[in-house]
Recover the amino acids of this structure.
């Protein structure tokens, strides 16, 4: 990912960093990333049919890089962490997985929002590949539009975006444009940095 000037809205994300210096054993990164995603889900792990969670997963080319203190790529670590979290989610929780680059035929929805079929979700996650750029702004727009559409039909519930990424947006202008609007509409956004 190319280095760009920091967005004035970046600090509004709840950023949970993994791969701290204390994480010296191989499984530590997987453990910390799993915990970060688990914490970002919060009560959604035990939530019901009125809770909607969209994971926006960075599947850019930089996610193929090997993590600093591990022999796994960033995408492999993210996939393993997502698998562990999905194993713990209640089946009635509505979950969607949106990719930054993949699943273009379905508007980047790798797993459409709905009740979790754990086995199918895990199988799909295991086939993910990383390639392309980091269009976070566009991905957040797609994900938030879907959550807002659902909320217009179901007022009660929680609506959350979890962004798992290893770098800055390649469409920073769009991110700066969409992020304040998304936050002002009451959608919770958690950002989890992978190997940053």
């Amino acid at each position: 990912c190319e280095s760009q000037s920091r967005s004035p809205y970046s600090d509004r994300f709840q950023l949970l960093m993994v791969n701290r210096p204390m994480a010296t054993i191989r499984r530590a990164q997987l453990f910390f990333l799993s915990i970060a995603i688990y914490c970002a889900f919060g009560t959604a792990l035990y939530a019901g049919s009125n809770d909607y969670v969209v994971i926006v997963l960075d599947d850019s080319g930089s996610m193929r890089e090997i993590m600093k203190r591990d022999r796994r790529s960033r995408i492999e670590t993210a996939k393993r962490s997502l698998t562990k979290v999905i194993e713990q989610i209640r089946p009635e929780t509505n979950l969607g997985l949106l990719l930054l680059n993949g699943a273009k035929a379905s508007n980047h929805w790798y797993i459409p929002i709905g009740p979790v079929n754990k086995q199918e979700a895990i199988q799909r996650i295991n086939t993910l590949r990383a390639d392309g750029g980091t269009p976070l702004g566009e991905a957040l727009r797609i994900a938030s539009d879907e959550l807002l559409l659902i909320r217009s039909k179901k007022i009660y519930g929680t609506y959350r975006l979890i962004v798992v990424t290893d770098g800055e947006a390649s469409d920073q202008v769009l991110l700066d444009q969409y992020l304040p609007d998304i936050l002002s509409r009451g959608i919770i956004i958690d950002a989890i940095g992978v190997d940053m």
Notes: The two ends are 11 Å apart (CA to CA). Helices lie at 26-41, 74-88, 118-126, 136-153, 172-184.
